[in-house]
Amino acid sequence: MSYLVIVSNRGPFSFSEDFLKNAEKCLKKGTQPEAPSFGEGGLVQAMSGLLKPGKWDTTWIGASMGEYDIDVTRGHYTELFSKMREAKYAPDHFPHIEIQRDGRMHFKYREYDFYMRFVFFDTRHMHSYYSNFANGFLWPLMHLTRTPLFYKKTPVFPRPHFVKNDFVQYTSSSVTFANTIIDETRKTKELRKDRAPVVIWNQDYHLMRIAGVYKALLEEEGVSEKEKKKIHVGQFIHTPFFNIHEIQGLIREDKRLRVKSQIYDPFGETIETALQKLIWDMLSNDFIGFHTKEYCDHYLEALQEWFPVEIRIADQFYEVIHQDSVTTIGAFPIGLDVDNILSEVSEGKELNYDWCGESLYSKITEDRKAGRYLFGGLERCDYTKGLIARLTIFQHALAKLRASKEDGRFYQVTAPSRSENPDYQKLEAFLENKVAMIHKKMGDTSVVHLDEGISPPQNYRFMKEIDVMLVTPLEDGMNLVAFEYILSQKYKRPERRGILALSTSGASRVLKQEGFGEEDGILYINPMRAKDSGEEIFEALMKKIHLSERVINYVETKRRVDDWAQVNIEAILNCKKAV
């Protein structure tokens, strides 16, 4: 059997006090515990096929996010999990955890069967590397792909905030992760006995230095060349990738601020030097995947700006030659759990969600009977999603509708996200104020703002009811909501299907590349031009365009997440490692 180590900042499952205490109470009462949610997150969905018994012996390594993770890891709750199994609650209705002699945590739950390991950080370290550097600096910077620089042009997009110590902590976390991967590599004892490969698959922008550290540790450990050939290291970046030309102004600003501060630092770290180290360490991967060719090109342009690398085209991939090594770069747009979504929006499956004590489905049904067009938006509350611009777009579209004796209502669902962060608190305040302003100008029922999110499967059923889905990020790595909305319309009559208004994102790039446009019910809009976007949507409604069978079939057949995972792993296994 081959070995797969998935590495991400957030693991697939965490253990809280409530989760464990409730399990203990259920055992005492002899009642079946409420089944915990697992597999709802996008990354877990993407990896779900790899977490089930089959070709791969999978271990998932992630940072600890639960206050009782360390107690479970140390075996303090082994008796609880054993009793759950004896009571026949686990693994069908409750996870079964076994701590093995080598310290690996065997996780069994329903059809899932894999190993799990936590990486532990103290609170201060986690705040510095995760909240400050990864989310406060890298997250906004990775979205700077085109003019205008959003942090200068929009009131809620923050300037990427760089602090040297946060970068040091980010690097330190990479060392901790890499040491855990080395330890896990040792535990795959068959590595030294057979030809089974080991794939290390790192996920996202939190882990951009890990491959470099891991490869260095392999050298330090004295791992033989024969064994190294069995180890294949890859990474997938789920965000966009910054445009080196668009961030030059940010780099110059950073230099000016340092000169102005007159602080002497013989080992000074700048935005430019930190980014150079990140993208150079990424080259230690054998394969790097991005959602789109444009993100691949941005990464390659940054490499060419700073390093003497040779880049050549090999079939559908790029190969970067650096020193005596080769790193392959490729675009693999992520997919979604198509069959699950379609099963949840099939005939007879209705929205069942209460908001402020009222059935959301009933409210939507009343609007439909009144002849209103139903606008919708659904995502987490993030400044990259263009939420303020979206409200303005709706306001302009509604004004045009009312001028034509029509009407509409906008249902915006925003799940709270990173609420402890001042930048997100500012966004939440702007959002509330913008809704209030629209209510004052357009009427106090024109926007229904659901600020607590809607979980699967009700989110898919919500989208099924929407006539105009507004997916308006300023920039987005992919944005699966666009594809989810397309699937949600499959079982509606063609003339009742909705319109997707989509702005700059991986999803828009993929759909444009495949040739889908207005005739397929997709409008490509610019959220920075809200009035024009609102008018485009109004005109599309008057033309009575709808999502086509062609685009629905494309998403159903070509955007499957299991296929995405498989092609990534095949690329990691088959790419060239040396010149």
Describe the structure.
This protein is an alpha/beta fold and 579 residues long. 44% of the residues lie in helices and 18% in strands. The chain has three domains: 2-119, no CATH class; 123-335 and 562-574, 3-Layer(aba) Sandwich (Rossmann fold); 338-559, Rossmann fold (3-Layer(aba) Sandwich), CATH 3.40.50.2000. Strands 3-4-5-2-1-6-7-8-11-10-9 form an eleven-stranded mixed sheet, sandwiched between helices. The mean pLDDT is 94.
Write the layout of secondary structure elements.
Blueprint (H helix, E strand, L loop, with lengths): L1 E9 L6 H13 L12 H6 L8 E8 L5 H5 L4 H9 L9 E4 L5 E5 L2 E8 L3 H20 L7 H4 L10 H24 L10 E6 L6 H11 L4 H4 L2 E6 L11 H14 L9 H12 L4 E4 L2 H14 L3 E5 L2 E6 L2 E7 L6 H7 L9 E2 L2 E2 H10 L3 E8 L6 H17 L4 E8 L6 H21 L4 E4 L7 H7 L3 E4 L8 H9 L10 E4 L3 H8 L8 E3 L5 H14 L5 H10 L2 H14 L5
Parallel strand pairs: 1-2, 1-6, 2-5, 6-7, 7-8, 8-11, 14-15, 14-17, 15-16, 17-18, 18-19
Antiparallel strand pairs: 3-4, 4-5, 9-10, 10-11, 12-13
Helix pairs in contact: 5-7, 7-8, 15-16, 15-20
CATH topological fold name of the largest domain: Rossmann fold
* Mean pLDDT rating: 94
- The amount of beta strand, in percent, is 15-25%
Q: Helical content, roughly? A: 40-55%
The secondary-structure class comes to: alpha/beta
Number of strands: 19
Return residue spans where pLDDT drops below 50 for at least 5 consecutive residues: none
Name the overall outline: globular
Number of helices: 22
